[in-house]
């Protein structure tokens, strides 16, 4: 994949950790978006990891030994049990991904460090204390490019492929005069998190992963996208082109009406008109 120019809107003089994270938003370093080796991470684990990053975000995020706390109630969503959250946390602690560093080198790193679970009495767990893995801290410290992810949009995805594609585009949506990116087919397969040995034929990959991901992004995100075949070798599809563009006002209105009954407050309503009064 070719290196893109760094988007000015996503570049901070103080680095990624110097950016301002708004409420309901996730500032995610670009290095943690396009990773390889995360095919075992479930949709729930991806969503929870974004919540953990959002909760930990700040200028001290790369400080060694820093601990963060978050209530289980914020992680389990509409579920009453913590079982899925606990399973996701263990998966994130055990998963090693390959991250491309800013200097072009590759680092193998765990996504999450040690965790503690607090319980008040014999009942359900109430608080998670966690650390980011020490090998992850230099990546966070040196990161200069990031994506702004909307938490409510993340909660709307029903597939991990759709969430991964949303993050890939969100990393690039601030680029000026760049509206597409070419990927090797195996490269995009890894970035979407397709398990090894699954969806081998391209027809299966397109039907089970690519098309559902594109459909979800187009339904939920403030931008639209498409993925086209641009290179083949014999009968094998070897290169794909991901294109994206911002939705028009009319398209956003149609989108808002379609999502209104499915997920409340997915999109911010327009501010009411202000009447000026003069004495």
UniProtKB/TrEMBL annotation:
Domain Initiator Rep protein WH1: 26-169
UniProt-listed Pfam families: Rep3_C, Rep3_N
InterPro entries found in the cross-reference section: Initiator_Rep_WH1, WH-like_DNA-bd_sf, WH_DNA-bd_sf
Biased composition (Basic and acidic residues): 1-11
Segments for region (Disordered): 1-20
Domain of life: Bacteria
MF term (GO), any: DNA-directed DNA polymerase activity
One GO term (biological process): DNA replication initiation
UniProt family annotation: Belongs to the initiator RepB protein family.
Protein name: Replication initiation protein
């Amino acid at each position: 994949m070719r290196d893109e120019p760094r988007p000015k809107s996503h570049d901070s003089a103080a680095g990624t950790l110097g950016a301002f994270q708004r409420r309901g938003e996730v500032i995610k370093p670009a290095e943690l978006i396009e990773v390889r080796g995360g095919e075992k991470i479930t949709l729930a684990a991806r969503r929870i990891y974004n919540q953990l990053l959002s909760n930990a975000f700040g200028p001290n995020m790369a400080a060694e030994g820093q601990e963060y706390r978050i209530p289980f109630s914020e992680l389990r969503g509409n579920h009453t049990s913590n079982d899925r959250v606990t399973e996701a946390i263990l998966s994130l602690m055990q998963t090693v991904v390959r991250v491309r560093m800013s200097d072009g080198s590759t680092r193998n790193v765990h996504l999450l460090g040690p965790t503690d679970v607090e319980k008040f009495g014999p009942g359900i767990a109430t608080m998670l204390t966690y650390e980011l893995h020490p090998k992850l801290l230099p990546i966070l410290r040196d990161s200069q490019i990031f994506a702004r992810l909307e938490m409510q949009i993340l909660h709307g995805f029903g597939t991990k492929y759709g969430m991964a594609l949303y993050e890939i585009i969100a990393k690039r949506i601030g680029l000026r005069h760049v509206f597409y990116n070419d990927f090797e087919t195996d490269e995009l397969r890894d970035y979407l998190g397709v398990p090894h040995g699954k969806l081998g034929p391209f027809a299966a990959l397109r039907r089970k992963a690519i098309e559902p991901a594109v459909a979800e992004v187009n339904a939920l995100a403030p931008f639209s996208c498409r993925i086209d075949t641009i290179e083949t070798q014999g009968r094998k599809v070897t290169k794909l082109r991901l294109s994206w563009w911002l939705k028009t006002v009319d398209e956003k209105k149609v989108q808002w009406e379609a999502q209104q009954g499915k997920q409340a407050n997915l999109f911010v309503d327009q501010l009411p008109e202000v009447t000026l009064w003069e004495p």
